[in-house]
Amino acid sequence: MEMKRFAAFGAAVLIAGTSAAATVTSPNGQIAVTVSAEKGLTWEVMRKGKSVILPSNLGLSFRRQRPFGAFEVVKTEERAFDTVWTNRLYKKALVRDCANELTVHLREKDAPKRLLDVVVRAYDGGVALRYGIPVQPGFELFTLSKDCTTWRFPGDPLAWLTIYGDYRTSQECPFLHRSLRSAIGEKTLVGMPAVIELNGQMAALCEADLTDWAGCFFRVPAAQRADATLVEAALSPIPETDGDLVISPAPRLTPWRVIVLGDNELELLANNDIILNLNPPPEGGDAAFDWVKPGATSWDWWAESNNSLSTELTLKLVDFAAEMGWPYHTIDGGWYGYARRPNHGPGVKIFPRAGFDLDRILQHAKEKGVGIWVWCYWSALEENGVDKVFADFERRGIKGVKIDFMDRQDQWMVRWYEKVVRCAAKHRLMINFHGAFKPTGMNRTWPNQITREGILGNEMTKFTHNVSAIHTATLPFTRYLLGPADFTPGSFGNVHAKDFTPQGAKGHRYGDENDRRQILAEEIGTRAHALALCVAYDSPLMTLCDWPQRYRNAPGIEALRALPTVWRNTLPLAGKVGRYYSVVRETYDGRLYLAIIGVGGATFDLPLAFLPEGTSWKATFYTDGPNAAQDARDLSVTTRTVTRESKVTLTVAPEGGAVVIFTSADGA
């Protein structure tokens, strides 16, 4: 995106023969990060006079090299920067990047006197740390065997955690509220973000600028002090090696280890711009990606798992997308290879299967002004040749590719992601990674990587009860801190948890093209809750899950017409992890959307002071109906005129929600 000058960069300061420790503070002075080589290499983070990270070890280990010895500080460099850049594919148009940076250049005291740099940035809303490996003998092609970074937290704090048992995972687990030490286990991996409650403040552990490196999990070792809890980095090993993590020549910079900080959940949301800011801008700026267009998409898979996928069904879904003002339709698995998926393995060609007329669909979609996305299994894409397949897609006029089942974040796979988005950009294709690892800000450098999964999303309601109202009220403060997610919300098959049965348990045979029974999937929560997720969740490509037969003429459908998916501004109003979330968003054409997600029944008294002065607004309310506690489909739709001096009272049912759309009533 376009970079705009906000203030001059601070001049670098070179200090020779410094002390064994150096500290950098945030621009507002509330956060201090200290890097010390006095008693081993350590770092420490303080915020508002309280410890966030107690002195914790830093370092890297390499194959065929002995561990680093004691370091001395050769010099330090400091700089301050403050810029603002524009992002038309985000939750707000202007992003400020303001931080103080400290680089500590280290050298071993004893032979072979190897060099290592530690780079720290202190933002008002968090900190980031990375290593630099300079050019030096022995690092012409190094093999990383361990990232020795640790985080030592005071006491045994509570946290919201995802837990995995293997490095191979699609990162689709619920966030559970538990003691950080509950994750102790030799084979237990903690995913990102780990959101930790610390003495009246909160910290979210993340990473950014993951490029040609191994993705990071966390591990909580069994050996712990009574007064603190230690967390270690656990990088994903390259498959079919003896635990090799990264193979690379120097010079290299590692990904950033990030801690987003705030007094509460809402401050975490306000401060998560750090992740994008730590990634480089796109080559050629935003102008090079002006063909990337956000918007909503219809979809064929969720309602019935493509058991009915056909040319005729796809044409109907394209027509409905056009009718609703959605710019896209997504064709999921089964359009190439075999009707039964997952369509990978030797000999599977990414070419329309017999009976599926992709060219007819594309021509019809073009006439309707609807762009087509297609699904691919990642290994089939690789075997068929990424560039060859993408060139064919470009020739056909396909707009985007949903790539699935990678389920890894080792260095090879991380590098493959970049190969794919780079090749896609050449062919003017957008990318939606599914079966994917968590975001680390790639969408800043490659805006055509418009969204990704790495989330326990609505598709899993077909198989499990885990996509609950508690889960959906947890996600804004956990997974969505990292970036956009293709949650696929918006079902109109609304039921309460007590009445919910996964589609598979009702006798639906997933992926069986001979099963023609109409057993449609359902979603936990009220109709108003389903609508609220479509507004509250971030995804420039918003995949709406249901079919026209349940959408058309149903109460609430007008809230999804021409649904915005990017925003000029976003204002979180209130929220508690796993309980509720309310947010106001401003569109680029001057409308405002209010969304509330709730778990237990509640009444919200909301002043409308967020509305601009001097304008009357037509407010359309999509709220839980009087019987919504019993019938999740019960929705009330009302309209009234309001101003910024007005107050509204919204009653949200258990597992409920609300959406209010404000449009100017006086032409202003």
Poorly predicted residue ranges: 1-17
How much of the sequence is in beta strands?
35-45%
Structure summary, number of beta strands: 41
For the terminal residues, how far apart are their CA atoms?
Answer: 30 Å
Main sheet characteristics:
12 strands, antiparallel
Kindly report the average pLDDT value. Answer: 94
Assign a percent range to the helix content: 10-25%
**Dominant shape:** globular
Number of helices: 11
The helix/strand class is: alpha+beta
The Rg value, from CA coordinates, equals 25 Å
Could you explain how this protein is built, in words?
This protein is α+β, with helices and mostly antiparallel strands and 668 residues long. The protein contains 11 helices and 41 strands. Strands 1, 2, 8, 9, 10, 11, 14, 16, 18, 19, 23 and 24 form a 12-stranded antiparallel β-sheet that branches. Strands 30-29-28-27-26-25-33 form a 7-stranded parallel β-sheet. Strands 34-35-36-41-38-39 form a 6-stranded antiparallel β-sheet. Strand 9 (94-108) and strand 10 (115-123) form a beta hairpin. The radius of gyration is 25 Å and the shape is globular. The two termini are 30 Å apart.
